[in-house]
Amino acid sequence: MTQLTTTSGIPVTDNQNSITAGPRGPVLLQDFHLIEKLQHFNRERIPERVVHAKGSGAYGTFTVTHDVSKYTKAKLFAAIGRQTETFLRFSTVGGEKGSADTERDPRGFAVRFYTEEGNWDLVGNNTPTFFLKDGIKFPDFIHTQKRDPQTNLKSAQNVWDFWSKAPESLHQVTILFSDRGTPDGYRHMDGFGSHTYSLINDAGERVWVKWHFKTLQGIRNLTAAEAQRLAGVDPDYAQRDLFNAIATGDYPRWSVEIQVMDDARRAAWEAQTGWDAFDLTKVWPQGEFPRIPVGILELNRNPDNYHADVEQAALSPSNIVPGLGYSPDKMLQARLFAYHDAQLYRVGTNHQHLPVNRPRCPFHNQQRDGAMAVANGGAAPNYDPVHADVPAVGGFGHGDAGWPVEGNAGRYDTRATDDHFTQAGNLFRLLTEEGKRNLIANIAGSLSNADAATQDRQIGHFLKADTAYGQGVAEAIRALQNQA
User: Fold this and answer.
1) β-pair partners for 114
2) Which of 169, 235, 282, 294 could join 100 in a cystine, given CB atoms 3.0 to 4.6 angstroms apart?
């Protein structure tokens, strides 16, 4: 049996009884083993994520299967057959850490690639779109998904009041209340980078890109009734399913694919449709921008310790490597700041030193000190002098020349003229008849809990997307009210 010690390595001779003054006490403050245990116990929780609080994770590998070197110089794509270690964290978005895995909610799909040039984090969802196009509204939206400040209860009124006044959310709302809103665990759903990113090749040429992860297990969704039942009998359903599948060698896999758009195609498409290629509430039609295969992602190793690896995983879309880049997507631009800032608050200044966050390649910077500075630079200088004789590198670095920026600085609101309805209507018309019935029933069950003004406003959006969509929801709500 391994000798029990304090955290400082001092042998513990008795882990059953406190040191007391006589058999009945009182307990003496000199019992450092007791004090250390209680102090650590009081501090063993780190702040819960504001979003994506409940999650599961696993390690795996990404293997290149197709040559995409004409688009990117990133070394992880340099040769067919090349493998890169990965970590993938799944999550629900709006619930607390103890919430059920089967709630109707988007699912986080955050992948870290431990490349030889540093960590690349592709932090997305199981949906290609989102509810918003500007990060300034993100805190407001998330507050509607959380608990009401007076009642401390979830509020359908708050949720639908926000959505009904933000028609840009309609596309994502349609996805959420379809069968895709309750996926059957994490293995049977697709993942998306969601935002528009960019790829840069050796010549410094850039294309815009959307990332897709297509499940090779096949899409499977839960009915609303089954999701609700599982929330009661097995709230950790998705965690259990993922862990057990990997433990028994049934490794889940996804085909990694990209959509590509160069600037000329972007300008023509935007002129034709009136849609913004960088708008997170829109998709790029796959008929015009077909998916291009890149590789296979496989999850094949469960973490040895959930807290160390899954809870302390600190991913950020700002982590990119040479050959990859960002875009003018307003939501992405906000997340480039917000995610890293959240990790500094939640895990700590030196969260990149933890094993799950540490790059697998050598790294060097002049950052020093702070709490838990494991890799603190040794005797190397803690500053970088001015190098006046070195040619300046333009753009964002990494060989990305950037993109032109024009216009006056200001706050621009295009919502009044944007098309929020066509793509949502297209999605509705793509659904099977059963899928449409399920979508309408799911929406009606939730929207019926909002007030009449909110219902009318939201139904107006559905009608603009598709007449049958809006009429179906209105009739379903009336039927529920007549039953009450």
Assistant:
1) 85, 119
2) 235
